Amino acid sequence: xxxxxxxxxxxxxxxxxxxxxxxxxxxxxxxxxxxxxxxxxxxxxxxxxxxxxxxxxxxxxxxxxxxxxxxxxxxxxxxxxxxxxxxxxxxxxxxxxxxxxxxxxxxxxxxxxxxxxxxxxxxxxxxxxxxxxxxxxxxxxxxxxxxxxxxxxxxxxxxxxxxxxxxxxxxxxxxxxxxxxxxxxxxxxxxxxxxxxxxxxxxxxxxxxxxxxxxxxxxxxxxxxxxxxxxxxxxxxxxxxxxxxxxxxxxxxxxxxxxxxxxxxxxxxxxxxxxxxxxxxxxxxxxx
Length: 288
Ligand SMILES: [Zn+2]
Hints:
Shape: globular
Structural class: mainly alpha
Largest sheet: none
Order of helices and strands: HHHHHHHHHHH
Bound molecules: zinc ion
Number of helices: 11
Number of strands: 0
């Protein structure tokens, strides 16, 4: 019996040697392979989300540009911003039309910039991430939240505003999703929405009293309310922590890139809240 025990010990030692030889590069390859397997095994739901993503991204581009300016986001025919020619259907095919014309207007040659292909690609990346993490029926819900947060974060980055027209419906959508799919968590989600709003408003008031100027906007509190409505009260502190850490990281990167940041310069907090919310929604809280 003792011989077999020694034998087992030798095997487990060999196994741990093998495990140690799995380097980071191989791990990366395994994750890549797993992602490819997921994509290959994706069902109609998954492929539907992937195919829709660039079109959703195109629409998000319209929302990001027009909503903060109070312009209509409904069915208004898009026009070239330089020559004013109404764009045809073939000019509106995401990514393809941009690549086919080399990023220029087909009619006047005006450079179109990276904005629209950027939103289309980002929406596609959101769909890929959702599909690789969730796979099944949850993919659409993951995409819905990811695309919505993408628009909010992008608007805050460009215009320093988080429109009520986007934050408030997201609170309701989060509570509705909980009622439909996780009825046992509705209380936690409703508590999350309330605490999210109250806690950031309290921090904002405190900041105004201590520093004598605005540090956090009302929009940030409403976004954290939406966050709480999706991830629940228990995960909320980690959303704030994740957002703060990623904002500090971004500030450090900007500093390294030569951008001077002082006590009076600021970064919009919305994009970081949006990112942290989506990651915690996808992967669950970092620690319990
Ligand atoms: Zn043009």
